[in-house]
Amino acid sequence: MIDAGRQLERMRADAPLVHCITNYVAMNTAANVLLAAGASPAMVHAPEEAGAFAAAADALTVNIGTLSAPWREAMLLAAAGARGAGRPWVLDPVAVFLSDFRRDACARLIALGPTVIRGNASEILALAGGAGAGRGADAGDPVEAAAGAAVALARDSGAVLAVTGPVDFVTDGRRAARVANGHPLMPRVTALGCALTALLGAFVARAEDPFAAVAAGLACYGLAGERAGEAAAGPGDFAVRFLDALAALDGAAATAGARVTPC
Amino acid sequence: MIDAGRQLERMRADAPLVHCITNYVAMNTAANVLLAAGASPAMVHAPEEAGAFAAAADALTVNIGTLSAPWREAMLLAAAGARGAGRPWVLDPVAVFLSDFRRDACARLIALGPTVIRGNASEILALAGGAGAGRGADAGDPVEAAAGAAVALARDSGAVLAVTGPVDFVTDGRRAARVANGHPLMPRVTALGCALTALLGAFVARAEDPFAAVAAGLACYGLAGERAGEAAAGPGDFAVRFLDALAALDGAAATAGARVTPC
Amino acid sequence: MIDAGRQLERMRADAPLVHCITNYVAMNTAANVLLAAGASPAMVHAPEEAGAFAAAADALTVNIGTLSAPWREAMLLAAAGARGAGRPWVLDPVAVFLSDFRRDACARLIALGPTVIRGNASEILALAGGAGAGRGADAGDPVEAAAGAAVALARDSGAVLAVTGPVDFVTDGRRAARVANGHPLMPRVTALGCALTALLGAFVARAEDPFAAVAAGLACYGLAGERAGEAAAGPGDFAVRFLDALAALDGAAATAGARVTPC
Fold first, then answer.
1. Which of A74, A154, A166 is nearest to A113 (CA)?
2. pLDDT higher for A134 or A80?
3. What is the ipTM of this complex?
4. Which residue, C159, C72, C151, is CA-closest to C113?
5. Which chains touch B (3 or more CB pairs under 8 A)?
6. Which residues pair with A62 in a beta bridge?
7. Is the dihedral of CA B160, B162, B168, B173 positive or negative?
8. Does residue A139 sit at the B interface (CB-CB below 8 Å)?
9. Are C211 and C46 in contact (CB under 8 A)?
10. In terms of Cα–Cα distance, which of A119, A168, A167 is closest to A139?
């Protein structure tokens, strides 16, 4: 049984320092999501310091949204630094289906043993070698279509796989669950998926069970979306209310509202 | 007769994928503007993939706000990719009057045949070889002062020229119109001009008549500003309401509210 | 006696053009803070133009939050350009304690004579050669612990030192003051510290007394935070209200509300 509220309270008590290497669109949003949730963000991408900082932080998150060759170098150094120091790290393979440039970067990153891989269905299908129907940064495939690929990739890589969409699917290759929290306005605000990746870094920092931590993080994030959506006047207002709802979410509400179903 | 509402509905029905290479300040805002309006943004700037992605997207927008040599390479590759695939693309020559570095980049980009060039009066005057009174990223010249330069540049380059300010001026070299929608708080929020460039990419994607599409995009954007400004408590609140107003704007309201006057 | 309202009105009357080289997380926020306060931001970082632009703008601000080697080059060129033209410039040594890479960059920047250095206590202690307890981008030391280091660094460098926290400490090496304005939600919104650095650039532009200008800027910023915090529903809502409060703050309210105490 996954207790989202207990995981949230544990994360907040730790207030983990999360090293983020993410895309230009998402940096501000990811930092505000981490602060609202009670964690501490730091964006560091210079090759001169990324490896050592990843080893010193509580978790690393790597997002390839605006990938370039210099940033790829920092991502690889940081992932190696986290791995070497036994720190958990999360990979977000944004639009990996877009180019060999992205596919190659993700292959090299996955070889460095991410603790978690979070993507939409088209991204997970592409990581597993499938074709998929993604376009731009958007999924063209339903979450269910990527469940098998996620289980296989979890077994191969040792990572927890999170396939996100209207109902998320999470698996560590042995166990699996669906998380049904969320709101239709969430994909209407840019970078909320990328910021979720950053938040999952906070949840898996010092976590005993990354599978449970990821499922709890997905539920808490979706719950904040549900609260924000209750009275939002549109996507601009929603984005503001979302941060407020995430900051206001407490353990009891998270436990009561989480819709995590083993499957 | 330009029907802004019909153009808005056509754009929304297409939900075009807009490839944006824009500045660091504007990326998040531009993505949210495109999402609010009903289009799909993707920010891609690596030389390894920018050309192929521009050829695959529905439109490209290039904004030189935080120009650097590596990004200039991506801009040129993307513009060439869009041109080669017959995709429309929009140039935003931010602060081109600031340096030879910017003037040279814009000259090379204009040689790749943009579908639309959008700038403030000082930027358009500078593109046409004039001196102007721009400073920083701000126009120091009234829109009217750049009307002649815009017509000449439209004829030379084949692009639709949009000179934006309190009343916008748009021309394809044969036809011209003024668009009188907007609100005084718009220039008090950073990146709204840059995000307009991104939105014009969505309007000209698959458009039969880029001149009409640009005029309609300018009118819809200004109308969202008018709605947002009705009750805004300040520039922060305005930015939130602006996205909500853009998302809520429908075809009938756009047609009724657009103030587009041929001239 | 420092009159925060007179300084605010002087700055607004000048509407200074502030050249910002800041981190990716803070760019949008810094630009919006400058616009809300009545100044004009411009983000320019290419080595091809950074030096000349810094010499032409009214002030320069340099923030090393997402430092990299190419940006370091631009920062050094811009600082040299500002110095050569007699323009004031502000240094924000974000997380300087994190790596030799940052320590070295700050040493080279300080050799170019910043007008103001603003940081948290752990950053100022690190600049002065101390150990401190900073982690990520956060201070681990109280403001008071860095007061001696700030006075010494002000005397050595000729800069005004601003150590920010719940109560700020500002000194030019001869005079010192505490500024007690602010709100607990301010550190819960990312980039507000970095945006303060940008705003201090506006306050010291064309200022006769940089010490008084910095103290006034700190007070005005904290006052906007106090106003925003009165009714904020959370950190998202606070960020919106903060910009509105900064835009609405007038000279009389700033003079009446500033809590600047010589010490």
1. A154
2. A80
3. 0.97
4. C159
5. A, C
6. A21, A91
7. negative
8. no
9. no
10. A119
Average pLDDT of chain B?
Answer: 97
Distances (CA, A) of C245 to A214, C33, C253: 38, 10, 11
Q: Give the SS3 label for residue A176.
A: strand
Instruction: Give the span between the Cα atoms of B69 and B87, in whole angstroms.
Output: 24
User: Residue A37 corresponds to which tokens in the numbers above?
Assistant: 């949730």
A235 close contact with B: CB closer than 8 A: yes
CB C186 within 8 A of CB C5: no
| Whole-Å CA distances, A119 to A194, A217, B157 | 9, 14, 42
Burial class (CB in 10 A: 0-12, 13-18, 19+), A100: exposed
Residue A132 scores a pLDDT above 80: no
Interchain CB distance below 8 Å, B53 and A99: yes
Residues making up chain C, counted from first to last: 263
Q: Nearest residue on chain C to B70, judged by CA atoms?
A: C46
Whether residue B81 contacts residue B57, with contact meaning beta carbons closer than 8 Å, is answered with no
Cβ within 8 Å of B, C 56-95: 57, 70
pLDDT score at A134: 82
Beta strands in B23-152 (DSSP E): 40-43, 59-63, 89-92, 116-119
| Nearest-by-CA chain C residue for B66 | C44
Q: Are A101 and B49 in contact (CB < 8 Å)?
A: yes
Average pLDDT over residues A68-84: 98
User: Which residue, A164, A158, A256, A252, is CA-closest to A215?
Assistant: A164
The verdict on a CB contact (< 8 Å) between C45 and B68 is: yes
